[in-house]
Amino acid sequence: MAEKIFTITNAVGENLHERLNELGAHLPKPCGSSRCGNCKAKLISGKIAVDNESVPLGEVFKPCKAKILSQNIEVEILPKQKVSRIETMFKAPATPLDTGKTGFAIAMDIGTTTVALILIDTQSGKILEQDSFTNPQIKFGDDIITRIAYCHSKENLLKIQKCLLDEIEKSLEKFSAQAKKISKMFVAANTVMLHIFFGIDPSGMGKSPWTPSFLDSRKISGSGFFANLEIEEIVSLPSISAFVGADLSAAIALTNLEDDPSNILLVDIGTNAEMVLKIDGKLYCTSAAAGPALEGWGLTSAMRANSGAISLVKISGDKIFYETIDDLPPKGICATGYIDLICALKKLNIIGENGRFENEPEFVTLSNSKKIYSVTDTILIDEADIASILKAKAAVRAGLETLFKKFSITPKDIDKIYIAGGLGKNLNLQNAIDISFLPAFDIQKVDCIGNAALGGAYLACMSESSFKKLENISSRFTNISLNLEKDFEDDFIDAMFLP
Fold it and tell me: What is the pLDDT confidence band of residue 38, given thresholds at 50, 70 and 90?
């Protein structure tokens, strides 16, 4: 059944997607172009063209690519396609899965700010349950360096480990009875989080030469590891370096990056932005501290990308409109919503290049001596929020610019770009480019793959060959330390501003 039927008059030559949204269609375009397929319609009457070809009556098409050709047209907006549970979280693996096993397994991504886990039926590969929660270790520090410093004693190390293990158990208690019969748990995380998860001293990564106690995959018996949860075996994916962890190894497995001859850039955007560059067959990696703002932490109205989060913001005339996840009443703003909102505020000249409100326009009010912009009566953004997002933007962009300069390449030299992380699935690429969060990539080359760390942990669970490919992965990469690169600091300062 159609969601809505719209009649449009006197709009010859205009983009149909834009006109429909002016009429209240609220069509999404999170990809920033026409890649995602989230907007679909059927032509009832009139004439339109897509890519300069006429669309027959009754045909389904993408409004974002449609040009209006007649004075009167009528179109039917079609419901969004339902996708599999896997596709809502991460790019579905192209690698064949080893189905036919017996039992159940857990795949988990332990992020510095967010933990996500899924329950898998290993016989079918089906995801039965999923959950995510804020990493409780954040109370000991919102970045990995602070947490390393906290682990200065065995007592503190066990304390910070226990708070995470307890929260994982609470999460699994929400799952069905199958979660009590887990054969294996596959874990992806950055290198510091893996050390703390296993109760291993991470202090070697807190000072030069930044030495981890281990990088290879670890396999231990799950007996007695958790207080009330029995697991036969716990397996971690291997890390690459002290600050490029198993979360990025998981993303490499999910994208099959090592076997692809193309020039590839993979960026996993989280509290720690990790990057892989494959150029002329050689593999390089690096990381930059983006902070927790993009994972829904520390901002006035921030939340993770859950139901009710404002995930998409757009402009119509001089007004700003938003959409929420699952079309529920707004509860807060997630990372993609913040990127869209900052882009909109800049385009409307409500904020300047430094992220501060300009000329105190009518949209901006004072609250406790702070200038704020109100998205709703209760959902706000202030200059401190914008500064936190710009700092995260600067870390990502400066890391990329430094890599490009080091190897004398430009975005045009990259054949494929993968954007991973919690914001990846809903990121409006054009808005991210417009605020210089990302370089001027060819959007058609970009694939937003969602939580690739969780996807890679799932693949490791379901494909023994994919897991084995990751053996000795650290030996195949050259690690780039951005703090030693002469251009990084200048690039970071430049990227703190909006274009």
Answer: low
Where is 268: in which H helix or E strand? strand 264-268
Say yes or no to pLDDT of 385 above 60: yes
Q: What is the pLDDT of residue 83?
A: 43
DSSP 294: G
131 Cβ contact partners less than 8 Å away, ≥ 6 residues apart: 116, 117, 171, 172, 174, 175
Which residues, 6+ apart, have CB-to-CB distance to 376 below 8 Å? 330
Would you tell me how many other CB atoms lie within 10 Å of the CB of residue 180? Answer: 13
Cα distances (angstroms) measured from residue 283 to each of 230, 259, 407, 445, 452: 39, 12, 12, 19, 18
**Of all helices (H) and strands (E), which one includes residue 146?**
helix 144-150
53 Cβ contact partners less than 8 Å away, ≥ 6 residues apart: none
| Beta carbons within 10 angstroms of residue 345's beta carbon | 26
CA distances (Å), origin 335, targets 294, 306, 498? 5, 11, 17
Q: How many other C-beta atoms are found inside a 10 Å radius of the C-beta of residue 97?
A: 16
d(CA 308, CA 327): 7
CA-CA-CA-CA dihedral for 198, 202, 205, 206, to nearest 10: 150
Distance, CA of 425 to CA of 257 (rounded, Å): 19
- Burial category of 228 from C-beta neighbours within 10 Å (exposed 0-12, middle 13-18, buried 19 and up): exposed
For residue 88, how many other CB atoms are within 10 A of its CB?
A: 13
CB burial of residue 317 (10 Å; 0-12, 13-18, 19+): exposed
For 447, list phi and psi in degrees, rounded to 5.
-125, 115
Cα 258 to Cα 245: distance, rounded to the nearest angstrom:
16
Q: What is the pLDDT of residues 233-264, one digit of tens each?
A: 999 999 999 889 999 999 999 999 999 999 99
- For 12-98, strand residue ranges (E) read 41-45, 48-50, 53-54, 60-61, 66-68, 72-77
Cα 267 to Cα 479: distance, rounded to the nearest angstrom: 15
DSSP, collapsed to helix, strand or coil, labels residue 120 as strand
CA-to-CA dists, residue 193 to 43, 87, 148, angstroms: 52, 26, 9
Exposed / middle / buried, residue 355 (Cβ in 10 Å: 0-12, 13-18, 19+): buried
Cβ atoms of residues 248 and 455 within 8 Å: no
pTM of the predicted model over 0.85: no
Rounded CA-CA distance 463/473 in Å is 17
Residue with tokens 């899924």: 118
Whole-number Å distance between alpha carbons of 474 and 396: 22
Residue 79 DSSP code: P
